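Next comes the chain:
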Amino acid sequence: MGAYILRRLLLMIPTLFGIMAVSFTVIQFAPGGPVEQVIARITGQGDATDRISGGGADSGNQDFDAGGEFSSKYRGAQGLDPEFIKQLEVQFGFDKPPLERFFKMLWDYARFDFGESFFRDISVLDLILEKMPVSVSLGLWITLISYLISIPLGIRKAVKDGSTFDIWTSGIVIIGYAIPGFLFAILLMVLFAGGSFYDWFPLRGLVSDNWHELSWPERILDYFWHLTLPLTAMVLSAFATNTLLTKNSFLDEIRKQYVITARAKGLTERQVLYGHVFRNAMLIIIAGFPAAFISAFFTGSLLIENIFSLDGLGLLGFRSVLDRDYPVVFANLYIFSLIGLFVSLISDLVYTWIDPRIDFERRDV
């Protein structure tokens, strides 16, 4: 197992390099970079993204016309002091070649030095840590609730396979899986958050403005009051996936020979189900817990945080992309990719811990 872990850890290096290289390359062709954003704000043009003629985020090279006069590839920069444009490039690091900037970024990230945000007076790491509690809160609750719903429901569906209960619940599960979470979130807002019908739940934030003035019981109620709609929207697809996974896992175990033997010995269905089947069928469910949490933490909350204005990592990443705050964008990508790779390794190790019969040493990575 030690050799397998070492191989997986070494494999993370080229994987991270590839992710960052592709992302960095794509960014070079994206219009409306940080320099353009500053120019657009200075000249009162608003968002620079739709006004850049070409060159992407690294389109900050100046040219001189035939008469030696300064001309800029930044649209909207005409009339601005050329020295000021150069200072902007130095400030954002665009005075260096792309390749030099890329390898400097990798070297800094390898030491977990993510620098400062372009447009916020705070370090990138502090900014991420500041927003993380909201996303962690959503990830923990969505994972816990989805497992509490899906495991009992999946077991019941496996036991009642082919019954009316199984058919009707399968229809509900399939519909829940088919409905996009963000679309269901918008529907919940319209129905219950002051839209066209009821105004029962808050529209934004994780707690009320006067949360610190409330007593502890009131704070807990206020917290869950704000979480109700976001969690409902996120649970829909998560519980559907886990329910079908649980059912299929139990069905696969129920049909095995050891179950028939247990029944032949006179054990009750409950003893067979929870004394033998449950332990084996839950292997894949338990082992998938880390990946399920990371999925809810990093991907599932992205649109939900934006829809409900929850100030977490999803909203931070979205706004950073719009603002072209590259240090925040790349730091989020690096950290999330690194955590995702480690979680994938942890999931494999959990498999071997739960079921010693699994031996990754005999497999090629």
